[in-house]
Design brief:
Layout (H helix, E strand, L loop, with lengths): L20 H16 L13 H12 L9 H9 L4 H15 L7 H13 L14 H4 L6 H6 L1 H16 L3 H8 L2 H9 L8 H10 L10 H12 L3 H4 L4 H19 L11 H5 L11 H17 L5 H12 L2 H10 L15 E4 L9 H5 L4 E4 L1 H8 L3 E3 L5 E3 L2 H9 L13 H14 L6
Antiparallel strand pairs: 1-2, 3-4
Helix pairs in contact: 2-4, 2-8, 4-5, 12-14, 16-17, 17-18
């Protein structure tokens, strides 16, 4: 199915790596077809209707599944099989929810959308210009929190969609064609304070007035730094007032720097407010060497470990011996660079050696990946990690630019990890990855 998109329009600068216009044209089409005309972006049906959203509220929002199943298992069970159009509506909602993420590959996004759509019993056309690489490339690192809380983000989208569609068309037009009207309107929904999609929606529809920042913490840090206001005081403000402050800061910095090509995730602005770390992602080798020496000393001085185990563990740390042999039984290459000759690869622990609870964990071949040395530095220090779908996660735009310099084309998917690797990777995301608490 072909769809006609509007001509490109101006948007804010977000760096040289990211290409925003195709995505924004797709969102403009979605707003017009779905939110204003109640239609569909992937079919000729009328999916975005008050009736369908009300059914969805009962099936999903008011019927939570508190089991240990994964997101899609729960979602499929909640939706059932009686309302195929409602299922297709959820698939289109997945499209808009996944749209901003640069840390999820285009392939994964399409698979997730298609999976839900096909629960309706209808085939899904994966060849569509709203599913092009350019459209699905994304513009923000939405962090693990956005992914793990996607059931909450979906519930929020359902809630605000229901409220929007219940408005008379003239009132809906007013809200959807004025960014500040939309911001004031969203403030009436208490859940807006906790949901990233609130910020995402405003940026997607009005990129000249709102920032691409999806993190509420980052929004407060930026305003606190530039306006010299305590974060605790900013937390009490209405969200739209934070948006106003961010816009004022942007205009002020454009005047100071003499250019409109500025972005809060690009230097020099990023360096001013982002004080989480002092070392850069490309200057950490000396730290790694020091830590490695310290770890070997800890092994040597541990009287509870017998000599043979000590030798094996030191070999593991130094890139020799039993650990590398065990890793070679599980992994055959660096999954990012494709290098297969393990003489040139680092046997990288997923759950760091220093955190392993047992000697078996230290030497478990499933607790590792072959990595090219420069990537091992990022992984060991928590600058990068991987989600359950194998998508590469990275902490910020600085790391993204480093990967770009290294000719690593984003997004990256390393394929499926086995169950044991996944459990170790869960630890890495939670305790090593620098955005683990996002």
């Amino acid at each position: 199915m072909e769809c006609l998109l509007e001509e490109p329009f101006m948007s804010q600068y977000i760096g040289e790596v990211l290409n925003l216009p195709p995505l924004l044209r797709a969102v403009a089409h979605w707003k017009n077809e779905c939110l204003l005309k109640n239609r569909s972006i992937f079919s000729k049906k009328k999916l975005w209707t008050t009736k369908n959203v009300n059914i969805l509220l009962e099936l999903y929002v008011n019927n939570p599944d508190e089991s240990n199943k994964d997101f899609f298992e729960k979602l499929k069970g909640q939706l059932g099989v009686n309302y195929p159009d409602v299922i297709c509506l959820v698939a289109e909602m997945m499209w808009i929810l996944l749209l901003p993420s640069i840390n999820i590959t285009e392939r994964t996004k399409i698979e997730n959308i298609a999976q839900v759509w096909e629960w309706s019993g209808s085939p899904f056309n994966k060849v569509h210009n709203l599913l092009s690489d350019e459209t699905l490339a994304g513009y923000a690192n939405t962090s693990i929190g956005y992914n793990t809380n996607r059931w909450r983000e979906l519930s929020y989208l359902i809630e605000i969609t229901g409220k929007l569609l219940s408005l008379p068309l003239a009132a809906r037009n007013k809200v959807l064609n004025d960014g500040w009207e939309l911001a004031y309107w969203l403030e009436k929904t208490p859940e807006s304070r906790r949901r990233q999609f609130r910020h995402i929606l405003l940026y997607l529809l009005f990129p000249d007035d709102f920032e691409r920042i999806t993190s509420g913490v980052h929004r407060l840090k930026i305003v606190s730094t530039f306006d010299n206001v305590a974060v605790k005081n900013l937390r009490k403000m209405e969200l739209w007032k934070i948006d106003r402050r961010l816009l004022a800061i942007r205009k002020q910095q454009e005047q100071i720097l003499g250019t409109t090509k500025i972005d809060f995730y690009q230097d020099p602005l990023h360096d001013i407010w982002h004080i989480k770390k002092k070392s850069s992602a490309i200057d950490i080798a000396p730290q790694i060497i020091k830590k490695e020496e310290a770890r070997v000393n800890i092994i040597n001085n541990d009287k509870k470990i017998n000599k043979k185990i000590k030798e094996q563990m030191i070999y593991a740390r130094q890139g020799h011996g039993i650990y590398r042999r065990k890793l070679a039984e599980v992994e055959k290459r660096c999954r990012i660079t494709g290098v297969q000759d393990t003489r040139f690869l680092t046997a990288s622990h997923i759950k760091p050696w220093r955190d392993c609870d047992t000697h078996n964990e230290c030497l478990d071949g499933n607790n590792g990946l072959w990595m090219s040395p420069h990537l091992d530095r990022l992984f060991d220090q928590g600058w990068i990690s991987f989600n359950d779908d194998g998508d590469l996660l990275f902490t910020d735009e600085i790391v993204m630019n480093v990967l770009s310099v290294w000719k690593i084309k984003l997004p990256v998917n390393i394929g499926t990890l086995n169950k044991l690797q996944q459990s170790y990777m869960l630890y890495h995301r939670k305790y090593v990855y620098k955005n683990g608490d996002a």
